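Saturday, quiet lab. Running sequence design on the structure tokens for the scaffold JK sent over.
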């Protein structure tokens, strides 16, 4: 019976692979599924497309993925990464554009490779001459084993994030940062030269940016006062003014602004801002 079944199975498979319309083909999912993710950073976006192989009981780094050898950083085809604005990766400048992400894993650090040729799959055809950039990234450990190779963003702020390569018990973080300061300061410079055309929101955004980045607080306060000239009853702006004055060491002025903000926010039942003002006043009166 076995001698009859096996040749028949071979004939069936051969017929299906040759496109015989009399036989239905069986399709199964990829063992290493494709994935994509994106993250807004600064005024731009980072988009990544990669495949996710699994551990499946194997030893990964140093065995399946050898140390010291070029890796496509995933499975199937090379990992693709798009930057829609100029950024730095671990302090190294990368212009906006499409790239392939290759790595050379090591025990304590990896070599991260940003490669200009995205046209091929895997590492076949890789030419070091087309590298845009190579830099080192330290490895770390995860608390639990991660079954599927994962690329993820963490510690996201308005202008930065960590891009983590995670698999098995290894995590390799890469710090991404966008230069938003140059663009914002250029905008501030333009509106400073034409204050009559500046909108309420622009004053507030400029002041908030100066506050966040620890820039000239006196200038930030001046812009807040300009915003209050446009809308004297804005409890949000008054609270922000109180925060700036507190940072500048003017407790009396901060208390006065916070009390006014508290009165207005209480009158319209803006509960969240009532709480913010009460918390600020409590700190100022300690």
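Result came back. Writing it out in full:
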């Amino acid at each position: 019976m076995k001698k009859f079944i096996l040749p028949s199975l071979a004939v069936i498979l051969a017929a299906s692979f040759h496109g015989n319309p009399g036989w239905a083909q069986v399709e199964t999912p990829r063992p290493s599924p494709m994935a994509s993710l994106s993250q807004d950073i600064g005024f731009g976006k980072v988009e990544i497309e990669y495949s996710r192989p699994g551990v499946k009981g194997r030893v990964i780094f140093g065995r399946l993925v050898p140390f010291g050898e070029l890796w496509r950083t995933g499975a199937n085809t090379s990992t693709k990464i798009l930057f829609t604005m100029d950024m730095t990766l671990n302090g190294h400048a990368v212009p906006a554009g499409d790239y392939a992400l290759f790595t050379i894993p090591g025990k304590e650090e990896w070599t991260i490779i940003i490669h200009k040729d995205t046209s091929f799959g895997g590492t076949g055809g890789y030419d070091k001459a087309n590298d845009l950039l190579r830099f080192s990234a330290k490895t770390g450990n995860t608390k639990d084993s991660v079954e599927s190779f994962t690329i993820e963003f963490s510690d996201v702020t308005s202008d930065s994030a960590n891009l983590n390569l995670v698999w098995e018990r290894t995590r390799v973080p890469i710090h991404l940062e966008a230069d938003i300061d140059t663009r914002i300061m250029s905008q501030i410079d333009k509106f400073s030269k034409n204050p009559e055309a500046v909108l309420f929101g622009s004053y507030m955004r400029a002041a908030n940016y100066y506050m966040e980045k620890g820039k000239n607080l006196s200038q930030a306060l001046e812009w807040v006062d300009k915003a209050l000239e446009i809308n004297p009853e804005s409890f949000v702006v008054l609270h922000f003014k109180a925060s700036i004055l507190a940072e500048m060491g003017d407790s009396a002025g901060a208390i006065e602004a916070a009390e006014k903000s508290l009165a207005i926010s209480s009158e319209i039942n803006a509960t969240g801002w009532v709480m913010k003002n009460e918390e600020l006043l409590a700190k100022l009166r300690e």
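Notes for JK: The chain has two domains: 29-178, 181-284. Residues 251-267 form the longest helix (17 residues). Ask whether to fix the surface positions before the next round.
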